[in-house]
Design brief:
- The structure is a single chain.
- By secondary structure, this protein is an alpha/beta fold.
- The chain is built from 11 helices and 12 strands.
- It has a 7-stranded mixed beta sheet, sandwiched between helices. The chain has a 3-stranded antiparallel beta sheet with strand order 10-12-11.
- Strand 2, helix 4 and strand 3 form a beta-alpha-beta unit.
- 50% of the residues are buried.
């Protein structure tokens, strides 16, 4: 059984092609796309960007104080971009990526600092956005949520500007909004785009990418929920999964022999591109020995029960060996 890597859906490819060929050059997709994202994220202001990392760059440029980064389960670009901007970085201890806001009390941070984090810790567990937001608002800390994997949350907890001060996302492959390139930044703070306008002007986007995002948003809620449901099914049938009772879009399985078993799983669960099965320790996932199975990277046709049961069989057989 061959697993397939996620690609933009047929309708998305078609509309992007039509724009590229000039068939839809009067549609003004950039403005329409931004309006759709405003509704999706409950934001008053939205700007398209050239990538997720560019969105991070714009958001961090706005921050005058320290940048608080989780000790694991985030995105390595947080630290790299903060360093490039000359920001002071403060590391926050987490529970395998999950943030407990009370741990921020132990940190020595300056005024006007920000906490940047991903909607899902290591993609495996949804953050307690409500408690994070409440604590940070009460303590003057700006929250920046990388919602690349959390956009379209039906519970309206993740990727929502009513909770996080700034929501950023990548729309590159193989994200939940999946057009191969681009990103966006959304907020209810009117000062952000004024104060960070120079880096925002460096962000190059176009109508082709905007048209793809515009189309993908139509199915983003359904696509995220299908991914969450598939991961939940796997967690119920595989032992030793990290954050087993939390919502997630990938599966992380603790294993002292992660290196060898990752290699074995790659042979048993082949995919047409790399990036489906990875070993930990890995800052972007967890800093412990584990196997990460990236359900979010799979084509939606591979989220059917027959494929999920094949993953369960392969993993459980290895664990029992």
């Amino acid at each position: 059984m061959m697993f397939k890597f996620k690609t933009p859906k047929k309708e998305t490819r078609q509309i992007m092609s039509d724009v590229a060929l000039g068939k839809l050059n009067d549609a003004n997709f950039e403005n329409q796309c931004e309006e759709k994202i405003k509704i999706l994220t409950n934001a008053e202001d939205v700007k398209l960007t050239s990538s997720g990392n560019n969105s991070i760059f714009v958001a961090l440029s706005f921050i005058k104080g320290d940048i608080i980064i989780p000790d694991q389960g985030g995105w390595h670009g947080f630290k790299q971009i903060a360093k490039f901007l000359g920001k002071e970085i403060v590391t926050l201890k987490t529970d395998l990526g999950l943030i407990n806001p009370k741990n921020i009390d132990e940190l020595d941070i300056s005024d006007n600092s920000a906490l940047i984090f991903t909607s899902f810790a290591g993609y495996a567990a949804d953050q307690d956005i409500k408690s994070i937001s409440r604590y940070c608002k009460n303590n003057g800390i700006t929250t920046i949520e990388d919602a690349s994997a959390g956009i379209g949350d039906e519970k309206e907890l993740l990727g929502n500007c009513k909770n996080s001060d700034i929501v950023i996302a990548s729309t590159g492959q193989p994200k939940i909004i999946n057009v191969g390139s681009g990103g966006f930044i959304a907020t209810n703070d009117e000062n952000i785009f004024k104060k960070s306008s120079p880096p925002l002007k460096l962000s190059k986007t176009n109508e082709i990418i905007a048209s793809g995002i515009y189309e993908e948003i139509n199915s983003v809620k359904e696509n995220l929920q299908r991914t969450l449901n598939a991961t939940d099914y796997l967690k119920k049938h595989i032992d030793n999964t990290i954050h087993a009772k939390k919502r997630g879009v990938n599966l992380i399985i603790k294993d002292d022999d992660a290196k060898q078993k990752t290699w074995e799983l790659k042979k048993q669960l082949p995919i047409d591109k790399s990036g489906f099965i990875n070993k930990c320790p890995n800052y972007n996932r967890v800093k412990t020995k584990a196997i990460s199975i990236e359900i979010k990277n799979l084509d939606y046709s591979c989220l059917e029960k027959e494929y999920l049961d094949e993953i369960i069989r392969a993993v459980n057989n290895l664990q029992q060996a």
